[in-house]
Amino acid sequence: xxxxxxxxxxxxxxxxxxxxxxxxxxxxxxxxxxxxxxxxxxxxxxxxxxxxxxxxxxxxxxxxxxxxxxxxxxxxxxxxxxxxxxxxxxxxxxxxxxxxxxxxxxxxx
Length: 109
Fold this sequence. Notes:
By secondary structure, the protein is mainly alpha-helical. Helix content is 59%, strand content 7%. It has one domain (4-102). It has helices at 4-34, 41-46, 70-84, 91-102; strands at residues 51-54, 61-64. Strand 1 and strand 2 form a beta hairpin. The mean pLDDT is 88.
């Protein structure tokens, strides 16, 4: 039989796990709302799946690999938010996003 202190420790660890999980879920939905992430790109990125956006030029859904990098997903989500809100995407922003999406993960480019 386990001692009381070990049971308390296990119970505390379970409570901490639930708290962390709840905090992560809240953070996830906050990001989805903040970035107006209609295509659930943050979810796809976390699952290491291609992200998508709807082209403002032809209305077609396009798929893109976003590398496992916080800056890359941040700028991609900003790009999608701009598209969803019909905001201008200036050339400098588009060029920088293109650069971030083209840098490889395994090399020092």
